[in-house]
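Entry 12.
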Amino acid sequence: MVGERRHSDEELGFSVSPRFSEDLNELFSPAQKVFSAIDEAVLETARRHLVRRQRNLWWIRWAVPATAAAAVTGLEPILEQICSRLSLESL
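Predicted 3D structure (tokens):
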């Protein structure tokens, strides 16, 4: 809000230990720099893990359409019988 006055902890009567204040400052300080070698190693491990998962799931891409095709092919004679009975009954 415009014109809002911020108060310090001391003005409001709050007090914290110096150790707690240091811990909070450390917790919310910018992250430390990660060496590029470590960063690359972590990324490579993640890539290998994801590729392995993709390899394990390749069969799903074929199983679903194959099952649908088998179901349609297997149901065709039954559907033909039903359709023929319906057309005979309507005559």
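Annotation: The mean pLDDT is 79. The radius of gyration is 34 Å.
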